Amino acid sequence: MAALSISCMGPFLVAEFASPQAMLSWSLTRPGFVTSRKVAWLEVRNADLPLDVDPIALLETKMAEVGHEDAVHLMTSRTVRKHHFAAASFGQANASCLATVGLGNADRVGESPAISMPAGTINRLAHVDRPLSTAALIEAMSIASEARTAAIMDLNWRQNGKPVTGTGTDCIVIAAPDGEKPEQFAGLHTDIGAAIGRAVYDVVRQGGELWIAEQAGSDDGMAVDMLAAETA
């Protein structure tokens, strides 16, 4: 499994790999298929984004100032020190997920879109230790999305009386080694898909439980805070 180090020095959360990884995301600044060694989060507040500020330009500028211009960039209003990490293995496949989780901007798929303020969102990096084909990267993205929705629905967070299924401004980054002989499949019936699904589910469930506890004014959820960590 590629070494992944996690550093958190607000307002930045950074995941860095020992070697370049193939990545797929809808990042604001580096969307689509890219090769990178880093994924970096920027924590922002409403005051950082008045109507006359371009969020993409802000993200690019802030990342370049600290040497993260080559990373895949994510933006969140969630406090980045309250990030979460989980790993899972099935068969020979090992996966991990790093995420920041907020449900302030939660919504239900197929309903009229609405933006809640302050916005909260779910941004996650899911990594598997096997090279993946283009099709498998896309399939892994669908598994990470499905796992997110399963975790949120199990939290039973509701809006207008119905369980929410996601947030309106979240983002997924799928990463895998940039190597030869890539795996061709990453669906539910594969070890790769099972590992990604479990890691993402656990992280989103954990982060969602903490966020809900905070909304209720409870300090109990703070015990599950995960600060900077390393895995290999």
TrEMBL record:
It comes from the Bacteria. InterPro entries: AdoCbi_amidolase, CbiZ. PANTHER family: ADENOSYLCOBINAMIDE AMIDOHYDROLASE (PTHR35336:SF5). This is Adenosylcobinamide amidohydrolase. It comes from Pseudaminobacter soli (ex Li et al. 2025). The lineage of its organism: Bacteria, Pseudomonadati, Pseudomonadota, Alphaproteobacteria, Hyphomicrobiales.
